[in-house]
């Protein structure tokens, strides 16, 4: 694996041993192409990577200029590799935080930071109802900014999760065995997402 673009383009990344299934270079490139077409760039954005594995996706976001990157991985040895990969990035102002935690525990807790982008790449055997509960908790705990994007990588041929309200599906991009599903808050419900609950969060 390597960093595809940004301040540390071309640097090789460490990979954990075992059954970890990293997001392919092709899928990562497609992911960031989609995100940058939406936001213009990663500059000054807050990025959350759930089930982060080696941290390759979060590292890519940091290399491309993200302001804050949170990498959440519940396997301590793999989280340690993610920390080493983040240390490879030459970022003048971006910050990274690697947390050894389950995705469920992280999103089930309020935080003093809302994210522009939340990416999750759970193992393919994680049940759809787990994904749906994560999305509900993301909304409940105000982890996604009003105009933020959630991107979820899942097995292409598998029966897929349902986006719970107030999320709506936006698009799907397939990369062979895996597909990335994009969603966000429905425009019709944005006024009902209390701004007071978001105003105290770091922009």
Automatic annotation (TrEMBL):
The keyword Metal-binding does not apply. One of its GO terms (molecular function) is methyltransferase activity. This is Unannotated protein. Residues 1-27 are annotated as: Disordered. One of its GO terms (biological process) is rRNA methylation. Keywords: Methyltransferase, Transferase. It holds the Pfam family Cons_hypoth95. The keyword Transferase applies. It comes from freshwater metagenome. SUPFAM superfamilies: S-adenosyl-L-methionine-dependent methyltransferases.
